[in-house]
Specification:
This is Universal stress protein. The protein is an alpha/beta fold. Helix content is 35%, strand content 25%.
């Protein structure tokens, strides 16, 4: 069936469920290779200006990698991202936090996998990884974004489905 699987992990509930599903697959396909990847994107705060008639207002967006970031009100959708932080706000600390979180889940289930930190735009980096490593199944979580936020940010899952050459399982 599948011999080379990857899980895209970002610490969200959806990615944790995707990792759990991948672990299930590895248990029933013990010869399959599993890679767990997470992408460090550049989260520098960007300021844009939104024109509303004769008024121009600054709009700040810190965690959006999108052409529409300059039009999004600050904090849109942050309520879904609210979780206890166990790390500093540096890329290195966040990577260490994700690495430890992934490894804990793998250890609990006594599962072997490669855990890799990549850098760049999430969609482009994951697609490149799939092609370079000949991944035949990518397992991803659904973000749970809806409404206006999904319109502005777009869905990484949707972009991966469109751009990826491998089969993709979206776990909800």
């Amino acid at each position: 069936m599948y011999t080379n699987m990857a899980v895209a992990y970002d610490g969200s509930d959806g990615s944790r469920m995707a990792l759990e599903k991948a672990i299930e697959f590895v248990k029933i396909m013990p010869n399959a290779k599993l890679s767990v990847i997470y992408v460090n994107e550049d989260y520098r705060e960007s300021v844009g200006y939104m024109d509303a008639g004769t008024v121009s207002a600054p709009v700040i967006s810190a965690n959006v990698d999108s052409n529409y970031a300059q039009f999004m009100p600050h904090g849109m959708g942050d309520e879904r991202l609210a979780h206890t932080k166990e790390y500093d706000d540096t890329t290195a600390e966040y990577s260490k936090h994700l690495q430890e979180s992934i490894q804990r889940q793998l250890d609990i289930h006594d599962t072997r996998a490669s855990v890799l930190a990549l850098e760049g735009n999430a969609t482009k980096t994951i697609v490149a990884f799939i092609e370079e490593q000949n991944i035949d199944l990518l397992i991803i979580g659904n973000s749970g974004k809806s409404g206006l936020q999904k319109f502005f940010i777009g869905s990484v899952s949707k972009k991966l489905i469109k751009d990826s050459s491998s089969s993709i399982l979206v776990v909800k």
